[in-house]
Specification:
The chain is α+β, with helices and mostly antiparallel strands and about 210 residues long. It is about 20% helix and about 25% strand. It has one domain (about 5-115, about 140-195).
Amino acid sequence: MRKISVWRLGANSSKRRTSLWSYEDESEEFSKIEGYLRKGKKIKSSWTPPEVEVEDGKNRKLCDFVLHPWAPVISEKAKDLLMPLISPYVEVFYLMEIRGNPYYMVNVHFKADCLDYENCVTVTGKPMAKGKNLYILEYAFDSHKVPDVPIFRVIDGPGYIFVRSSFVECVIQNKLTGAQFHDPGVSPFATIASGKSGNVVPGVLE
């Protein structure tokens, strides 16, 4: 089986980095935006910036990629550099200012049917059947179906964002900070338990 260059996109979750968390809100508007972002549905004119809590402080570094549980959050610098590459596959919306700098939330709406279901490992430990939408811990891809696009989601996945080499190269060449590129074949829970960053790409400014 040939090696496929696909990584799961993440952001540095260290307490030495600024991060964002959304308030729990039972309003219909909040639930709609959350659902769109988690599932990669196009938002278009329905966008209302969700209320977020900023975990910041003088000892925290503000990066171009900021941790948020729903969707990638990026600086204006990152947006300007990445949009020529990713614009056909995403929607980008103004979120808020952090320390006077504008930040944007990225809704990745391009989805690919490219999983190797028999070799994906789910939370049940059993092989995944197509269309079951079980929580996947370890991803396996069909090399013949992986799209030649810089950023995408997968059909039947829990909402993770995946990127290809062109995205990674753009981040590294432009010295964008805070991004992490994880091996999709490694469980995120295993990464957390290890206490390590999980980034597997050299040259990334985490």
